[in-house]
User: What shape does this take?
Amino acid sequence: MRRNPGAVLLLALLPAGCGRTNLSAANPAGPQAERIETLMWTMTALGTAVFVAVVAMLLYATWRGRRRVLPSVSTEDERQMTRWVVGAVGVSALILIGVLVANLGTGRAMASFAERDALTIKVVAKQWWWQVEYLDPRPYRRVLTANEIHIPVGRRIRLVLESHDVIHSFWAPNLLGKVDMIPGYRRVTYFEADREGMFEGRCAEFCGHQHARMQFRVFAQPEAEFEAWYEGQLRPAEHPRDPVVALGQQIFLQKGCVLCHQVRGTLAGSRFGPDLTHIASRTTLAAGTIPNTRGHLGGWIVDPQKIKPMSHMPPNAVTGDELQALLAYMESLR
Ligand code: CUA
Assistant: This one.
């Protein structure tokens, strides 16, 4: 990867963890993020150069001023001062124009990433999670999931962004810049991953109580791996064969779960909360708040308000046996 020496120095000065993580604009994984990174380092280098020059001149002026006992300003001195001021204003204006051109160039390059046969993914931001829908032109090929976005490496992604309630902001710094999601407006942007990996994303606009726990993950996979995942997500939930799993399904359909969640292949069809048809295939729960393990899921079902206060998931009064059956059912939804 290309990197200039100044950038390496600055990167070394950054606290550990800010540099090469998968939640960092300084570690781009796609052409859009690379353009943003170049602009970022250009502006950082320019800003540093200007700062150093100004401080150096200030120190020089202070040192020079101390030597003089009485100021004696001649006409020639005044002329020279005027020349310095005009020169400094001119250089500042040139730098600002340069930054503007670099900014516009980056914006233009980002806008030119549009492509006809891009894979369209619609992300709807909600308090406080992300609904993810793959908008295949054939309705029976559409996939609905939550908080985790799988994409094939090297394929252009057309991202359609909407908000359900308040203003959120979609931000996966390794892949693209922040895009505000404003209720009533549909934003469309394009991006691409040019290497494999899992890239973290955050909501970058304060959107209420659990704004900090509104995270998502982007999994960039080779085409074949992505296709396998997609086919798996397309399938409805399997009919339970194990008696405990079957009991869990019954509880799911009789208790409050069914009012908010969808499990395709069953009578549960609400889209208020995340689609759970393949919940076991996801790595985290509650939008990146907790890992997707049996223990955490149990705690989440019983008392979600303790884990994520003010979220729309209510507590569920279930007995120990009911919870175990429910967990067995959730684990079967691969
Ligand atoms: Cu959604 Cu902050």
User: Anything to note?
Assistant: The CA atoms of residues 304 and 323 lie 14 Å apart. Confidence is low (pLDDT under 50) at residues 11-19. The pocket of dinuclear copper ion is lined by residues 125, 128, 168, 203, 205-207, 211, 214 (CB under 6 Å).
